[in-house]
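Running this now, will post back.
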Amino acid sequence: MSENTLPVSTARSNGERRNKLLIALAGVVGAAALASGAYWFAYATHFIATDNAYAAVEIAQVTPSIGGTIKEVRVTDTQSVKKGDVLVVIDPTDAQLNLVQAEADLGSAIRRVRGYVANDGGLAAQIASHDADEKRAAAQLSSAEADFVRAKIDLERREALSASGSVSGDELTRAQNSFAAARASLAMAQAATVQARANRDAAVGSRGVNKALIVNTTEETNPEVALARAKRDQAAIDLERTVVRAPVDGVVAKRQVQLGQRVQAGTQLLAVVPVQQMHVDANFKEGQLEKVRAGQPVTLSADIYGGGVTYHGTVEGFSGGSGAAFAAIPAQNATGNWIKVVQRVPVRIKLDPAELQSNPLKVGLSMTVKIDTRGNS
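Update: finished.
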């Protein structure tokens, strides 16, 4: 009997052991699931991540403000420059000649305005002289009018007496000559009066024209001088602009300018990339951005450094639209054959300048971004 019962007991013991192991395994799986769920809900749900992110920066395009022939090119691609460093020199000959001409024009304008001021005094003296001439003409006219009246009366008297023979023919002739002379003198005096008045009016008009050029101004503020000075200053600025300097600290890129090249204002010469101001554009799916706010902390890594370098930054802002909205050929969803596609929205990440200086980035490098949405949410 014992021989028959032994296998049954052994089988029962093995089954119990297996059940215990299964229960233990189920407990471990359940605990792991609970731990995983707790981790997910308590911690992992507060983070969003994407590897659709790239380093970017506002590149400074260097263009000349004036045209000319390139005399010197002092930089090459990949060269580091500081703000104010000389990049390109344009032949200054034309600008120097323009400045000399503008300075000469300014000198002429100053002398011309001084002439207006001096002319105003001369015209005032002419008006005073014409006033005196007009008064003298008026006095001469009064005298001529009196002589005319007297000659007329004398003639009328002698004509009345000539019929009775009381006045000789010779005396009558003299009276007629005197009357004619007085009438001519009166006409001359009247003409002289009109001329004197006209001369004075002309002098007054000339002074008015001259005064309009200097009224309410000084030599410094006169419009002609101000215009000439502005042209002189512009010529001086153009001469300074023959030296093209770096607008920001950075690295030279896309150098296209060559020695001896003739360029126009606005021609792209090269670019300066301010690598110390690098940021990251992270393209998150629209469904990931519910809890993302400006100022939240971000951790980043760059493919160029692998996982050995970690950057820290903050969310700086969001793009005004999705990437598709700003595409060269945006999707037209009103055509009728519409299929919903999850959109991505660029999020700008500001990086720590000290970390950038230790581990520089280049434009367009791939980044991995993780945002902690617990901060400033």
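The first strand starts at residue 47 and ends at 56. More later if anyone needs it.
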